[in-house]
Specification:
Length: 835
Amino acid sequence: MLEKPYATTPEDIILELNTSRNGLSSAEAEKRLEVYGKNVLEEEKTSKAAIFLRQFKSILVYILLAASIVALIVGDMKDFIVVIGILLVNAFLGFWQEVRAEASIAALQKMTESKSKVLRDGKTTEIISSEVVPGDIMILSDGDVVTADLRLFESAGLMINEASITGESIPDSKDHTVVLDDDTPVSGQDNMALSGTTVVRGSGRGVVVRTGNSTFFASIAGKVKEQSPDTPLTRAIQTFSRRYVILILLLLAVVGTADYLYRRSPAETAYIVVAQLVSAVPEGLPLVVTLVMIVGAMALSRKKTLTRYLPAVETLGSATVLASDKTGTITRGKPEVEDFHAGDKDLLFRVSALCNDTEHGLGDPIDVALASWLGDEYGRLRERHPRLRSFPFETGKKYMATVNETERGPELFVKGAFESLKELAGDQDLEQYERAMHSMADRGLRVLAMGTGAYGGEDTKQWDIQMVGVVGFLDPPKEGVRDAVLTAKKAGIRVIMITGDLPQTARYISETVGIWSPGDQVLTGPDIERMDDDSLYAALLDATVLARILPEHKYRVVKALQERRQIVAVTGDGVNDVPALKVADLGIAMGDGTEAAKSVAKMIIVDNDLRVIVDAIRNGRTIANNLRKVIYYLVSTSINQLTLISTTILMGMPLPIFPIQVLWVNLVTDGVQDKTFAFIKEEGDVMTRPPNDINKQFFDTRQVFRILFFGLSMGGIHLYLFNHLLGTYPYESAVSITFTSVVTAQWFNGIQAQKEDEPFFRNIGRSFRINPFIYASVALGLLLQLLVIYVIPGWFNVVPLTAEQWVYVIVSALAGFVLIELRKWGEYFAGTSRQ
């Protein structure tokens, strides 16, 4: 198919495609359909089985599978069933989320599947778009969706809304007569009608030059196949898992050495291996992380933010760059009259009302803006002065005109580009209007001139008008966007506005809302095309506004930022935004955007407003902090148990707790508490902190120190306790007391974990208010532990405890609480907290 039809005459294209202005015959169209294929996008599908199996791609999962197999070999069916059950629940949750998200290319395909009017056998015929072939002659009229790429050869006042491809909010006028340069960007291809765009007004005809996967639309859709990057949480878990596996392998080597030294039987060794593996892995971590994100997603939904991909709720909190679309997100998406200058205000109003095609609030956005500006006067003027004749807008002339009945008879009313009306104004002194026009243009307004005169016939060259004024239009910012931008900046997030509009308009709007400041740069699409990736990133460090941007530019910008370890959130609503939305760390689609954009995005903002996005970032940061806290809570438990079990093995002591007891701690007792971490309220003002380094969000030095501090100190306390108990009580009682102490210590650890930085006793009221559910979970956990000890002790290899034995439990558990409190006060006075 033709590569640059905009640089070729229609006649040459018709000749090359072996067609005519009367279209193809039905027989020829059938042949071409077989050669070129259907006018649809190819769809790649992933099998449900493959989606399900990839839920198990985790080192932690592999460790648990190994532990379950060992348990099965030694006949420990209970441990096997519990571990496998957890893995399956987590896999089904992830599977369900991914299946729901596999709609991206299908949605793009759906957008192109509509009806098209073509000439077949010399007659106008309506066919489904999938049957359109190169060489077809397509007929366009008001409201039509363009379903293939056309080289126009006829146009009458044709205006096409290309916002879904170029991002420009103002419809583009088409002129079939021009032949353009080879390097003309898509936003300047005025002789083309592209697939996925919509006719706003006028009519036209064109020869189909590209269909299906050859269209410009398809070149955008092709980038959807690129995989989105892993979320910061996923990467952090993977890094942690790799390091953790090394630790576990070392411990297993220790077990093997101990087995050789102490000459244990193979059955005993296998049992110890299961105990080590089960204690080493925080089994509940995948499930509770999923739950925290689900609760976070539900909280976001109440704030008009829908989550299609669960890890996105955490990514939102990690974002370092917010690349926002202008139209509909920062601005209202509808141009309004911002300013005007009139020599005669009444005449200016009359031209604005009469030289206007708006009916019932529909039509060209500029006409709609004028009608809204005039209010009730619009209807009264049109009723008082009925239209007699109209001259539609033409690209070459750059104005439209109407003839209306007035008190002086038929009168001409003209609206269009200043330079075009200047030619019709003869010797009129236009200095005042020219100054006003330049002043408005410098502020980024789109300016139209208005004129009137006596109607002298259809020969436009004979017209003689008087210019009566100029009107400036602007798509105004939404209320509250400026405050949202300032909040994002305070939080250390760079806000960049990306638009297809002119640089002057983009800079004016961005300055109004606080994105652009003196000294910032404005980059354009052509600027980006001249840069390599390193130069682009260097330019982006000073740029806050990107104007005249095409899909490939936006895509490159996102990739350049990501390659320098930036976490990029991108907003968009059109087909032009699809590549960037897909490849971004977090793609955010607008609720009233195209299905293509929504289908590839990980989040959808129901209310198209930057304020909602910034508010969602606040929630995302709180969710990320809660994930950090629950990771600390669960991993520190595992380190505690690991320290206790490993040390007793090395010392040749009997096991202090059994594998089934470890599972009880990790999955049932902790499992009751860890679910409540999803409800922890914001600790401090999260929007006064810079975004966390991606590699430090969940496992920085401070986090690792705190995990090891609790795990090693409590492991040491419990080792001392167990050793003391062996000399005082029977083995079964010593195990029971140690087991219950491990459980109780973790309850106190969970209470302390609700506030990561602030000591519990510094503000006791806040300590209780930050998450009341944690105390309810302790009460429930106590009931469950009492059930195990006194109702079903045989199931868990324990014996009932006496009142005296409970003293050991309480004292050792409180020791852990006090140690954490002392650590927090030490960090607080040293100023090393994260606040």
